[in-house]
Amino acid sequence: MSTFLGMPTTAPRGVGHLRGDESFPDAARKALGNEQLRRNLAHATTTIRGKSGAVIAELPDWQELRSAGSALKAATMARLPELLERLEENVTAAGGVVHWAADATEANRIVTGLVEATGHRRVIKVKSMATQEIGLNEALEAAGIAPVETDLAELIVQLGHDKPSHILVPAIHRNRTEIRDIFLREMPGVDPALTDDPATLAAAARRYLRETFLSTKVAVSGANFAVAETGTLAVLESEGNGRMCLTLPDTLITVMGIEKVVPTWRDLEVFLQLLPRASTGERMNPYTSMWTGVTPGDGPQEFHLVLLDNGRTAVLADEVGRQALHCIRCSACLNVCPVYERTGGHAYGSVYPGPIGAVLSPQLTGVADNASLPYASSLCGACFDACPVKIDIPSILVHLRNEAPHPRTERIAMAAAAYTMDHPALYARAQHAAKLSRHARRLPRPLNGWTASRDLPQPPPETFRDWWAGR
Amino acid sequence: MSSKDLILGRIRAALGDTAAPDVPRTYRRAGTQCADVERLVDRLVDYKAVVHRGSDVAGIVASLEPGRLVVPPGLDPAWLPPGMATVEDEHDADAVLTAATVAIAETGTIVLDGSPDQGRRVISLLPDLHICVVRPDQVVAAVPDAIARLDPRRPLTWISGPSATSDIELNRVEGVHGPRRLHVILTER
Amino acid sequence: MRIALFVTCLADTMFPAAAKATVTLLERLGHEVVFPPGQTCCGQMHINTGYQKDAFPLVRRHVRTFAPYDVIVAPSGSCVGSVRHQHAMVARNAGDLSLAARAEDVAGRTYELSELLVDVLGVEDVGASYPHRVTYHPTCHSLRMIRVGDKPLRLLRHVRGLELVELPAAEQCCGFGGTFALKNADTSAAMLGDKMRHVLETGAQMCTAGDASCLMHIGGGLSRLGSDVRTVHLAEILAASEAS
Questions:
Q1: C72 and C110: one domain?
Q2: Chain centroid, CA A398 distance in Å
Q3: Which of B3, B7, B47, B156 to mutate to test the interface with A (most CBs of A within 10 A)?
Q4: I need a surface site. Which of A42, A66, C79, C209 has the fewest CB within 10 A?
Q5: With an 8 Å Cβ cutoff, are A454 and C38 in contact?
Q6: How confident is the model at residue B13, as a pLDDT?
Q7: What residues of B are in contact with residue A206 (Cβ under 8 Å)?
Q8: What is the number of structural domains in chain C?
Q9: What is the CATH number of the domain that holds C147?
Q10: Per residue, what are the HEC states of A34-98?
């Protein structure tokens, strides 16, 4: 097989976590049957919606910030080659090393090689969507390197042999009691009298990870933003595990999607206002670390930045869908989505769940590999309103549905319906035929989904146009 | 072909002749608002920092009984309580005393930039108590004002309250890996 | 004013009472209602299910049918949303820029019922009487696609005898979403379950909305539950008078 070099390419199969094992409706059905999960999700999303709404309401210029953020991202995409080269130049000038990874396989190879070159067999990790997307932990483990997740939620997921289900709070599907049980079962040296008080659980994680932080010489992180103008990287976090990873080790390796670059230092004044309020519902997250290359005598003395494509250029090639790359991973769209609130994140199959996942994953992989995701929405539009950079997710969903492969029977039915509706005489006849359904309580497939939990309306004795004609 | 050339080629092919839109900066920009120290206090307290006001920094520090204290090399010696010894190694410290570069009133944030009176990043990370001294002229109104003052080429740490997490049921809980106690001393001059 | 009724295929076929009420109401307010006969369906279901090519002739038909009229009204936020935000796109994607321009022109003259009443006709008290306890569900497309805001509520507050009760979590989707209700029937039913619980919590006798589709969904669920809470289109409440 020959590939035309330089053509935008989707993320390869067989590596990483962008494709699920089953379709969204099948996975959702299982999740919907889990009452505990639904209670956990409803509680958590209701909490965060309230917090976020309150701190957003404090800013008189929230809409202006959204507009600026949206335009900044669009302007960044239009100048992406120039900005990435500028970023590379400035990171290099500040003592860092920049690597380019065309896909997940190459990124995993680069990072694994860099860790092996240090001679160490353990890395500490800051929560990063990019490294989850490419399956870096599995690649490191295959090379005999132990990755330790240090974010509390990631630790809960890792100790629970579980999968993340939310961009911001990967263990959102677990409540405090379940977390205590996982810690009691899996955390070496844990106090057997551990309670499910959140502060006590956080303290247990602090004790457990402290020695690991102090003794591990290599860290892997993602990045929220990278400033082309200065070569500065930024990681926003809450717990201090990010600060630990970014300052204690000798070597820091940061994996970042190419879309995370921003043109200038000043542009951060927009995103640092948008992200915390939309994300954790805080005026500012507890800790933000910013670093430019290597600072002599302070923090890691070896810094590598891996710039990742892995399908992003394929997204960029779609004029409607490319705005999905504007995402700053705040997860506000998940928290307001009525579908996500009920199914949770695992149903989406990919590491990117919720509304943004439903538009991003199918574009990264090619829509045929995630064909059910564009339909995992009622198009209610809550995501668009919540998005701090105004990504029009409903429009991208509609666009991707148009690109998705369609079942043959549906294709035939849709064509027939359109033909009928384009011929008013046929249409009037079909209206009368609809009356035949008067006594149906259960419809055949695929319409049985409706009658499983709803009654059909009784067709009226005459249609409106009959009534009008008889006036 | 290098991966760099491959990726840049893909991006150019994807973009075609896409034009960059103008960025409307109609939000509240740097210099458009007055810094409000009372708001800073309110926001710090809201995120569980403890605020002390007064110019007797050494006296306030002493009253906190910080235990083994680590300080950055360029700290104002007058801030140290008379006779209080400091430790050299932050791994052994119970507390750290630093200055700050900027404090943001609207978000309750203090920013350290690694200057000699703030020290290496790790010293304000490992101890359980962080005491941070902020002068009134360091307080700015909002995030854009802070961005305008900061030098991005320095290592920056933005701190808003003590270490916290929202990872358990999306409720904020203070005290994970960073300092569990943050005390801010706001001096009067 | 001469107003063209865009009845919508669903109201025409399944819920003519909502369409008749729209006519009754506008005529009572002294306006002339006309029914352009070539109209069928706006194509929203096709567009939202991924069949823009099949939707194209429906968009063309809609634009041709309604082009001669200065003011067009539909008793549906969702269908108006499709006309306003999708028709020109479908035409553009099919390469028909002239149709796209005409579609935008028609869209600019198309109003959802509460928009027509409040914004164009400048009336909030339509002289209705409806002595029932009613809760209002703001449908997603009314709320977030065409942004009718509180116009329906302003109209309802002026209805004689009507006791308006607030719906908890009103802005959450009922789970209809067109073919979503079929393709993701389980998730849709879970969303519907919560919506019905909130409706029942209000103690209302009626649940109203500006879209027959969402009401069909909520009403179908309530009927299956054996609840005697009924669904009624906003137009039917506004058309009701003491005489009727």
A1: yes
A2: 19
A3: B7
A4: A42
A5: no
A6: 97
A7: 175-177
A8: 2
A9: 3.40.50
A10: CHHHHHHHHHHHHHHHHHHHHHHHCCCCHHHHHHHHHHHHHHHHHCHHHHHHHHHHHHHHCCCEE
Residue C172 corresponds to which tokens in the numbers above? 């959450």
Q: For residues C64 and C58, give the distance between their C-alpha atoms in angstroms, rounded to a whole number.
A: 10
Residue C125 CA from chain centroid, whole number: 20
Indicate yes or no: CB of A450 within 8 angstroms of CB of C144.
Answer: no
**Residue in A closest to B8 by C-alpha:** A81
Contacts of C86 in chain A (CB under 8 A): 398
Query: Does A13 reside within a domain?
Result: no
Q: How many helices (H) and strands (E) does chain A have?
A: 22, 10
By the 8 A CB rule, do B87 and B24 touch? no
C-interface mutation test, from A390, A402, A456, A462, most C Cβ less than 10 A away: A402
Nearest CA in chain B to A153: B167
pLDDT tens track for A239-255 = 999 999 999 999 999 99
> What is the C-alpha to C-alpha distance for residues A255 and A130, in angstroms, rounded to an integer?
7
Provide the number of structural domains found in chain A: 3
Same domain, A140 and A29: no
Domain that holds residue A358: 24-33+313-403
3.40.50.10420, 3.40.1580.10, 3.30.413.10, 1.10.1670.10: CATH of B33-186: 3.40.50.10420
Judge whether C127 lies within some domain: no
Closest CA to A204 of A186, A225, A187: A187
Residue C116 is encoded by which pair of tokens? 């027509």
Residues of A in contact with C137 (CB under 8 A): none
- Dist CA A83 CA A99 (whole Å): 15
Q: Do C172 and A338 touch (CB under 8 A)?
A: yes
* Length of chain C as a residue count: 244
Chains contacting C (3 or more CB pairs within 8 Å): A
Q: Do A283 and B22 touch (CB under 8 A)?
A: no
- Residue numbers in chain A where pLDDT is lower than 50: 1-2
Q: How far is A213 from chain B (nearest CA, A)?
A: 10
Same structural domain, C85 and C148:
no
With contact defined as beta carbons under 8 Å apart, do C126 and C241 qualify? no
Q: Could you tell me if C3 and C26 are in contact, meaning their C-beta atoms sit under 8 angstroms apart?
A: yes
Domain span at residue C197 reads: 133-239
Does the interface predicted TM-score (ipTM) exceed 0.95? yes
Residue C244 forms part of a structural domain? no
Q: Which two tokens stand for residue A125?
A: 């990790």
Residue A408 is assigned to a structural domain of this protein: no
Residues of A in contact with C192 (CB under 8 A): 453-454
Q: Give A290's strand partners.
A: A234, B156
Domain assignment present for A61:
no
Provide the whole-model pTM. Answer: 0.96
Tens digit of each residue's pLDDT (9 = 90 or more) over B64-75: 999 999 999 999
CB-nearest partner of A457 from C39, C187, C220: C220
Q: List the 164-223 stretch of C: residues with Cβ below 8 A of A.
A: 171-173, 175-193, 216-217, 219-221, 223
